[in-house]
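Notebook entry, cofactor series.
This is the third protein in the set we're modelling with a bound small molecule. For this one the ligand is flavin-adenine dinucleotide. I'm keeping the input format identical across the series so the outputs can be compared line by line later. Sequence and SMILES below, as received.
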Amino acid sequence: MPNINLHKPWYNSPTIIKPGSHITVLGGGISGVCTAHHLQKNGYEVTLIERNGTLMSGASGNPAAILDPFIAASDTIEKEFYLNAFQYALSFYQELNDDIFEQCGLAKIAQNNDEIMRFEKISKCYTEDVLYFDDDRLIFPASGYLRPKKIASILNDNINVMLNTHVDRLSENTDNTWSLYDVNHQQITRCDGVILCNSFEVDNFEQAKNLTLDKIAGQISFIPAQNNEKNILCSDGYLTPNIETEHGNINICGATFEKNISLEITDKSHQENMRKSPIPIDNKTILGGRRGIRAMSGDHLPLSGPVANYDLYMKEYSTLHHGPSHKKFAGAPYHKNLFLNVGLGARGFLTAPLISHILIAQLSGKGTPVNEKTRHALHPARFIIRKLSKK
Ligand SMILES: Cc1cc2nc3c(=O)[nH]c(=O)nc-3n(C[C@H](O)[C@H](O)[C@H](O)COP(=O)(O)OP(=O)(O)OC[C@H]3O[C@@H](n4cnc5c(N)ncnc54)[C@H](O)[C@@H]3O)c2cc1C
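Returned structure with ligand:
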């Protein structure tokens, strides 16, 4: 039986799926890879499905990904979540092969006096191992960058990885198992549960069509190595230290945020990256670039948890605007054994390890490693509940 939360039944814990059950993870970016890894560690049989020919080929496929934590002076749930996510990500990536995580530190450079004052104030709200203030900079000594393509190597051989496989439709069977179908209506797999990790395309599935995620494209630019600082530098944009990649010895300069979700690399976006660079760029030769699409939620927190049955939520909780205690509401109507880890926005590499850990702890019945407030702040149904509360 699901655990009934009397105060907020719309955020009840989902039904437990026993370890040993077969779970399909849909999408092979950082969200899907971390989710599959945590499932496997907890004793599940895992299938990971990716449409492209390699893992980490969507937004997660850049030659480097930086860990740039969200920070704030005031105590908010976002601050608490991102601090937990940063610390969890550091320990998660540090345990991996040396080749994956480069712990070079990250420096946010203030752009004006107001920002210097803000940085000084923020630095008093964190411990020095997380960040400290130095001159005009906030330094994150433990941060660094990842080589995303290498992260896929964390997956154990026991995980059944299906590449070049596009899932067109999901269907719940009468015995509560799920079937996944391709465009030709052929069944790809049948399993006990599904976790959707397919980012901005999640609303293509009937069960998730009411999720509201913004699609924001971004471009990074590769320039000849010319930054002799050890740290990643951040201001409006960011500049990595010199990195050896398939494009040569480069600095990566990024990133744009664009409503136009075309994946075609543009010179205009390269110019924007140069303009936003934290330090002036001497050699402006462009050696290449990469574009991807981010899935952003309205409150900049990821969506992680069980998938709400939208129609039943709208019916059951339609009078929520009268106040949460004016009647006894029923427990959350979820699509049974269907979950998601999406909406990772601009910090997916920072949040994917923790949200995967939280989600698998929930579905295996181990209880969440974070407090209820955080679980509710990540709950995929929170936007439906906010809408109904305001009506
Ligand atoms: C230019 C740019 C720079 C960025 N830099 C950073 C950074 O430095 N640090 C950081 O933390 N974050 C960064 N981000 C954000 C980060 O890339 C994302 O948050 C993260 O990659 C999202 O991961 P994901 O697994 O949710 O999505 P994706 O990596 O996009 O993976 C989703 C996968 O699902 C697959 N898929 C979709 N639909 C289906 C289907 N029906 N069937 C089968 N497969 C399907 C797709 O092919 C794709 O591979 C950046 C983003 C951009 C665009």
